[in-house]
Design goal:
It contains 5 helices and no strands. It is mainly alpha-helical and 158 residues long.
């Protein structure tokens, strides 16, 4: 019989979910810092529009970072917090200073591709573990991010 954690989920499956959520946390953290950089350094055409959009995005990413860390804790794990860990496990890499809006949006779209694929993987794992909390969280994120991908992609078409 499987041993259960305090919220009634299999401990081993929860540990594996926590590991993958820490990978997601790493990706979100690098994505967040990159987006802060785009916000700070953007210039040229569409400055005002992109400056505001990048701020909206990094504020949303900051909330997700906190929610993912709290979900890891809820599962009985420990959220990683060191940027050395983040840079080692994140598939999203640090952006150097980016001031060109199109380049920033290309980077954002690439980051969303990485994040959404990882969240789909976590959602499947969570579903297999009967972890409705993580499944719902990933589903909510994916739905909202797919819309953002559509909107950023539409912006790039001129």
């Amino acid at each position: 019989m499987a041993k259960l954690n305090t919220i009634g989920l299999d401990i081993k499956k929860s540990e594996e979910l926590s590991k993958n959520l820490n990978e997601l946390l790493a990706n979100y953290s690098i994505f967040y810092q990159n987006t802060r950089g785009y916000h700070w350094n953007i210039n040229g055409e569409k400055f005002f529009e992109l400056h505001l959009k990048f701020e909206e995005l990094y504020n949303d990413l900051l909330l997700k970072i906190d929610e993912v860390a709290e979900r890891i804790l809820t599962l009985g794990g420990n959220p990683e917090h060191a940027y050395s860990f983040y840079s080692k496990v994140s598939s999203i890499k640090e952006s150097k200073q980016v001031s060109n809006g199109k380049k920033a949006i290309e980077d954002i779209l690439n980051s969303f591709s990485i994040i959404i694929l990882l969240q789909r993987k976590i959602m499947k794992m969570a579903s297999d573990a009967n972890d409705e909390g993580t499944t719902a969280l990933m589903s909510d994120y994916i739905r909202a991010q797919e819309k953002l991908v559509w909107m950023y992609t539409a912006f790039m078409k001129k």
